[in-house]
Structures are given as C-alpha cells and as structure tokens.
Amino acid sequence: MLNALPVRFLPLIQFTNMSVQESELPNESLWAELKLPDTLYTDTLRKLHQAIENEWDSLQRSACQTAAGRALWKHITNDPLAELLAGETHLRNLYEKIKKDRLNNAREVSGVILAVRTLWFDSKIEVAIKSFTGGEAQVVLLGAGMDTRAYRLSCLKESDVFEVDFPEVLQMKTTLLQAAKESIHDQEHLKMIAKSLTRVEADIRDDDWFEKLQISGFLPQKNTVWVLEGILYYLSDTHAMQVLKIIVEHCILTQTVLLADFMNKPSTTLSNSIFHFYSDWPDHLLPSLGFSDVKLSQIGDPDAHFGLMHDPLNLFNKLRQLPRSVQIHPDDGTPCCRLYLVEASGSPHQIIP
User: Fold this and answer.
1) 98 φ, ψ (degrees, to nearest 5)
2) Which range has the worst mean pLDDT, 4-18, 132-146, 189-203?
3) By Cβ atoms counted within 10 A, which residue in 91, 107, 272, 312 is the most buried?
C-alpha cells in the first residue's frame, strides 16, 4: 500500500514539476469544484470511513490516499470506484493540494505521478496477459490496498485475480463495496470484470503468505503476473528480498511476469523517510535473483509518459539526462530521487514484448 511521501520525494502522490500550460493537463473546469458522490454521505459509508481514520495506522490509511489520487485523476485513470474507497477526508486533502498548485501556477500538480504509475502498471498487465497463450493468467496484487483493477480492466476478463493485504484492509474494502452496492441504483461500475477475484488476508512480511495464497486457489503451474505496486520500499531489505526470492522460486513451472516499482537510495535516506528497501540498479538485482528479460523505465520515458510529461524542465526529464549513478543534482545540490518502473520475466523462456 502506498503512503503519503516526504516533501522532497513525491513521485507517487505529488511530484511532477510539470508546466500547467501543457495541453495534456486537465483544464480548469475539472478542478473548479470538488463534487463528491452522494453515496459517501450515507450513514454506513461515513461510519466506515470514520473507523478508518480512527483505527488504522498510517500504512493502512495509505491505501485510501492512493485511491484518492486515482479518484481525482479518474479522467486519466478511469477508476469510478476510487472515490468510494478513498473517503471524503483523503479526497478533500488531495483536492486542496491540487487547488493550491493550480492557483500558484506550480510546476508540481498533485497526483499526476500516481496517474502515470497507475497507467504504466495497467498497460504492462495487459501486455503481459496478451503474451500468454490464450490470454489467460493469474494476476497477483501484493499489498493490493484499495486497488480496483478487477473491476475496471477489460484485459482481466479471462484472468483470476488475487489481492493480498492485511486482513483489516481487505475486510474493510469488501464492506465498503458491499455498502456501495446497497446504496447505488446504477451498479454498472460495481460489476467485476475479472474472471474471478479472491482476497487473501496475509502479511507479506510473514513466512506463510505464499502458503495462504495457494490455499486460496493460486496455482504455481499457471501463467502469472505478479504486481508489486508501491509496496517494496515499505519493507525491510530482508523482507523485500524474501518476497522477490519466493516469487522467482515458484516461477520455474510456468511463464511469469513481474511488475514492480523501486526507489533509489536517495529516496529512502531523506530525513523523516518512512521507506527502507531500495535499489539503485534493480535491472542488475533481479537477474542476480533468477529473473530474466528485465526492462527498466523512469518517469518520462516513452512507456511512462502518457502525454503528461512533455515539459523538458520537468524534474523527471531532467533526471533522465543524468547518469543513474549521480545521486546529487549538479544544478541545485538536491538528492536525485528516482522511481524505477521495472518489468521482468520469472522464466528464462518468457520474453516480454
């Protein structure tokens, strides 16, 4: 699950350095007023989200913060359920940041990098599934949080989706969606697109999460896409490496694709950083563990752009011009905080298109 990020490194919630004059940015009318769905004001939904604010820790609440980003950029991410899962508090908090950015003609418009990251994972999931014979696969979302891909990605119609996360998060998610079904007349967006959806209550820091996944119906011999979005850097080095090793150890029976994002060292060593695991060279790390056909992208690359990163003064575009070994920016002395989007194969016979 994705948490709020430190001010100096906001690649996932609030970090773009993008000119507001770019034609790809949404016009002012989209940000003019925050209009929340009536469903959020029902007694049931309000009480559930109040319980989240009162009882969840910051890591658990990060699932709602991420949903708020998808909700306020839903014209880009196409996620009609995100508002219901985010809740009023997180929606208003992010909206105020966006409003301030726009009023100040800021180069940083809150949420756009989360939109880019979401679209990158969406597109790579589709490519991976199409690469499998028959277009059928298992898709495992580790640290799924308030993810809604099983409801919004048409490429999953022949795939079995497994969401793995803390019990309280998945239970609350199920309850929120059920409450929404009871309150909404038009339930088109609440219809699942995936062939099946199984929620697996497990902490991936524990030794038994893969066993719980198998008990829930996961088949190691079936083509699988592993999605590790916004999760690895919250883990310790030991736990992150353990998760990656478990995945690659169970890739020997079939075609497997890994999709993950990595932070570099400067991103995790800032003051007040809540992050732990990092890799400056994930394209070297993954092959050493047994993955193959590793491809790495940075925000602003052709496959991590989506028409939102044209400004050459965009911080990510400036970072892309520097060698990845550079950790302090020569222009202003700030840390070169990078987010790497990585795809890999778990089998030497699987080639990612």
Assistant:
1) -65, -45
2) 4-18
3) 91
SS3 295: strand
Task: Tell me the pLDDT tens digit for each residue of 12-23.
Answer: 333 333 333 333
Cα separation, 258 vs 254, in Å, equals: 13
Consecutive H or E run containing 164 = strand 160-165
Taking alpha carbons only, the member of 247, 251, 246 closest to residue 222 is 251
Q: Supply the DSSP string of 89-150, one letter for each residue.
A: HHHHHHHHHHHHHHHTT-S--TTHHHHHHHHHHHHHHHHHHHHSGGG--EEEEET-TT--HH
Inter-residue contact 66 to 1 (CB < 8 Å): yes
Sign (positive/negative) of CA torsion 8, 10, 14, 17? positive
Q: How far out from the chain centre does Cα 337 lie?
A: 18
Amino acid present at 332? D
Q: Vertex 58, ends 39 and 147: CA angle to 5°?
A: 50
17: left (phi over 0), alpha (psi -120 to 50) or beta: left
Lowest pLDDT segment from 92-101, 105-114, 192-201, 315-324: 105-114
How far, in Å, are 111, 199, 255, 336 from residue 205 at the CA level? Answer: 28, 17, 25, 29
Q: What distances in angstroms separate CA 214 from CA 164, 217, 221, 250, one per listed residue? A: 12, 5, 11, 11
Residue that the structure tokens 């309850």 belong to: 175
Measured from the Cβ of residue 211, the count of other Cβ atoms closer than 10 Å reads 12
- CB count in 10 Å sphere of residue 256: 27
Report the residue count for the chain.
353
